[in-house]
Each structure stands twice: as C-alpha cells, then as structure tokens.
Amino acid sequence: MHRNISDLTYVYIDYLIRTTIETVDFALGRPTSHHFTTPSIVPRPFLQLTLDVVRRSRIDIPVILVALVYLERVRPQFKISDERWACERILIGTLVLATKYVSDYTIKNARWARWSGTFTKEDIGRMERELLDILDWNLSIAEGDI
Hints:
The protein is mostly helical. It has helices spanning about 10-25, 40, 45-55, 60-75, 85-100, 110-115, 120-135.
C-alpha cells in the first residue's frame, strides 16, 4: 500500500513543496516563481518537515497527486492571518485529507502530529477542518483533475 520515500520520485515531492509555497505566496499576495530550485529557495525547516512527514507516513504517489489537486483547489480561497507555519499547516492538512480520501487505512491525527514534530493532534484536526471548509467538503477527484 505505502512505499518508502526512496521509492518515491523526488520530482513529486519537489512539486508538492513548490506548489505548497506558491499557494501560500498567492494567499499573501506575493509573486510566485515556477523556476526556483528547491534546495536553494525552500526554507530548510520546511524542507526537513516535509521530508520527515513523507518518510514517516510512507505516503505514496497517488496521495501526493490528490494533495496537489487539493492545493490547487484551495488556492483561490485560501487566506492566511499568520504567515508563521503557513506552508507546514497547508501541506500537512492536504496530506491528511488526501490520505483519508485515497486509503482505506486512516492515519490518526495524533500520529500526524508526532510525525510533524511541531503540531498537536488538535492542530492537525483544525488544519483538516479549515481545509474541508474551503473545499466545501468536496474531496472527490476525477482522473482529469490529476
């Protein structure tokens, strides 16, 4: 069901990271660049948290693809009141929703919190609810969305 991070193509993880940053930049009214390279521009703590969560959760490519669709869907309505942890929050929130949509095995919010090393299970639940509200609880994905 799940694969190790070594089995994932880094291109998918890189694209997930860039799309997350672009979504936050859009919400903050900042210009985005589709031409940056991950190691030089991504804040090291965000890169590390992303790699840790992907490795620990052992998510696979379908989950990442669904998370990318959710990031694109929330972008027009996503508002940020506090920039701190914005990338981390939306990334984890979309991964939680994507995992629940794709997998029959539900990962508990306490486990996501432990994997993040930063957030509580209540934080994870809040991220999930906020994104569900923005998505109007529509998590369905069609092949064309991918």
